Amino acid sequence: KKDTWKTILQFAITVLTALLTTLGTNAAIVITFKNIITMRKINLIIIHCSATRADRSFTFEDLQACHKARGFRSVGYHYYITRDGMLYPGRPESQPGAHALRYNAHSIGICYEGGLDADGKPADTRTEAQKATMRELLVSLCMDYPEAEIIGHRDLPWVKKACPCFDVKKWLAT
Length: 174
What we know:
Largest sheet: 5 strands, mixed
Oligomer: single chain
Shape: globular
Number of strands: 7
Helix content: 25-40%
Radius of gyration: 16 Å
């Protein structure tokens, strides 16, 4: 019953946001409405990689199957970007992700396909299309969550891995 109401609420948010945007209403109203309805205080946007080899495909469907096999009810990330720059929505932003232990409740998770070179070593394997899509998504998310800090998964204090296999702060500064 609770999930049904969440689904209805998410649908209402989507419809009202589209309607307000189409009518040319001030974006601040849309943002405020969205944040009030979601009831989640987002202060982090965390970038991840799928930790898959650059010479192998890992589609959104592969990601879904992987996360379901790990016991997740759906993809743990809010967004997934494939090598061709295609953006796939994962979990709704109104729901906590399953991508950064202890930080899921107040973060948005973005994952890009790749992160390992052909030998399986950590590397920035993002294509130009992925970089462009990621930048566009981050601009949009920063409008929705202006107080959020953008970081890489490895920048969290307890993380001992290379994910997302590039320096997020350095990339954002370019």
